[in-house]
Fold Periplasmic binding protein/LacI transcriptional regulator.
Amino acid sequence: MRKVLSLLVLFALFMVLGACGGATEPKEKVDEAEKDSVAKKHKIGILAPAVTHGWVAAVAYHAEARAKELADEIDYQVQTSTNAEEMTSQLDDLMTWGAESIVAFPQWEGMEVPIQTALDAGIEVVNFDIEIDAEGVYRVSGDNEDMGIQGANYIVDKIGKEGNVVVLEVPSSGSVSELRKKGFVETMEKIAPDMNLLTYATKFTREDGLKDFADILTSNDKIDAVFSMDDETSIGVLQAISEAGRTDIQVVTGGGGMQEYFQMMPENEDIWIQSALYSPAMVKDAVDVAFKLLNDEEAEEVTVIPTTVVDRDNHEEFLDDKSPY
């Protein structure tokens, strides 16, 4: 009987120890699952220009905001640069870090080769805004050419089919300026072939808009409208007009969707102030395309965000006190 009891006790102990030993197995499995979960996080790099004006600052802001929203599923790095050489170096750093996809805003010429190198290495690249010659690159942008088309239609609607129109191009911005100018000039040739177009180079800053347009006003006695491609530039243009006391200019266009510029629209009844909405928030779509590609989901090779015209008649619909731009 004692032997039987002893055997029963030993058997019970064996079962208890077995149960205790088995309890560690699920924990190990959980730890392994957690490691796998971390390991499966995709790496997305974001390359943006350093702040040159508010629109560019808002691009980096919105890109990082979207990356933060995806932080449970991705690791990300945001790098900003002041020229093509620095962006190329940062691209190399992201490749070394192990980026599987890169969202790039290559605002300068000379980024074709480094981006092609990344693509050839198997990295998905989604360009924001800028169109460059690289095989396999995806792109998300506003409709730059349509911004020019809308600008031409707007000016003709306000001043008629004849007059002097200053075209402010920005050669340093690459395809952005090229496409906006193309849309404007080609449309103007169709709908108002007698319009006199005066082309000058400037930059996407209010300081350059002020300085350059002050010189333009000095050399041109009669200007009916200004095709400016950017809200910041346009603010400088409007300041130059005000300081010169000129009353001949009836229209100033813009582009970008700047809140300060929107608020100026109803303040000046003598000038139609227009903006072709080109929101920096659309960079979130570029981050989403990068994320889709890493998850083997389908994505459009080119995503174009439609143009919306804003002026004093509808500007209140676009006011947003939370906007960083």
Remarks:
- The CA atoms of residues 265 and 312 lie 5 Å apart.
- The chain has two domains: 41-142+280-305, 144-277.
- The domain at 41-142+280-305 is CATH 3.40.50.2300 (Rossmann fold).
- The two ends are 88 Å apart (CA to CA).
